[in-house]
Amino acid sequence: MEMTLQHQDRLHYAEVYASDILELKNFFLQKFGLNKVNENYGVPFLLAKKQNKIVAFASLIITLTHQIDFVIYKNPDFTVREEEDFKIRAKDYCKRNSSENFRDPEQLKYNIQRMADWLNGSI
Question: In angstroms, rounded to a whole number, what is the distance separating the alpha carbons of residues 47 and 75?
Answer without folding.
Answer: 12
